Amino acid sequence: MAFHEIQFPPRLSFGSAGGPERRTEIVTLANGFEERNSPWAHSRRRYDAGVGMRSLDDMAALIAFFEARAGQLHGFRWKDWADYSSALPSRGVSATDQLIGQGDGRSVSFQLSKLYRSGDEGYRRPILKPVPGTVRVAIGDVEQFETVDFTVNYATGLITLNMAPMADAPITAGFEFDVPVRFDTDRIAVSVASFNAGEVPHVPVIEVRQ
User: What is the spatial distance between Cα 23 and Cα 136, in angstroms, rounded to a whole number?
Assistant: First the structure.
């Protein structure tokens, strides 16, 4: 299998249903108490690509994309319209959105990530598929410039600075990003009559680990 660095048409993913899932193992003890454990360090996202279909032209585009990916064989990029930016939905991307590292005088490579915080707890999600042209980086609140001060590996989300930041200097970043996914089916069942009547096919899409 391979990963195709191509984005599923955003107009087709707009309106799709989906989001993160977790896996939790729960054991109920004899006294009624529970022991809970999760074998997953990171959540995994699922979507339904069929929900966004609004016309037969959309359906043709979906089938063409599905065939070009050979069904489940090859991965691709997916825009999650509910969660695609380092900033809040009401704000634009800024270079200080997310803390991605701290200088030690030696390191020059830092992984893009996004922090999800609620109360005292939080989850840091690695960002592997930033959108080209959207990544902004700052060192100690001083914005840097792509190709001049840093480079971005858009296939892995790794930032490489041209010079190592001073010790304790905060490295922050802002970006838009896609989710690496694949189709979770090798079959699309379409009926023109039912589609015209408002019934859309179920086309599951699932996040892939890389």
Answer: 33
Dump pLDDT digits (tens) for 15-70.
888 999 999 899 998 888 899 998 988 999 999 988 878 888 888 899 999 999 99
What b/e readout covers 125-146, taking b as 16+ CB neighbours within 10 angstroms?
Answer: bebbbbbeebbbbbbeeeebee
| Spatial contact of 64 and 70, defined as CB atoms under 8 Å apart | no
Distance CA 174, CA 76 (A): 22
* Nearest-angstrom CA–CA distance, 16 and 108: 38
pLDDT of residue 44: 94
Q: Which residue has the tokens 């989710």?
A: 179
Given a contact cutoff of 8 angstroms between Cβ atoms, the answer to whether 51 and 15 are in contact is yes
Say which residue the tokens 């955003």 belong to.
Answer: 10
- How many Cβ atoms from other residues are within 10 Å of residue 198's Cβ? 6
pTM above 0.85, yes or no: yes
Give yes or no for a contact between 165 and 171, defined as CB atoms under 8 angstroms apart. yes
| Cα–Cα dist 145/139, whole Å | 11
Tokens coding 18: 């989906």
List pLDDT tens digits, range 158-174: 999 999 999 999 999 99
Question: What are 155's two structure tokens?
Answer: 């296939």
CB 46 within 8 A of CB 207: yes
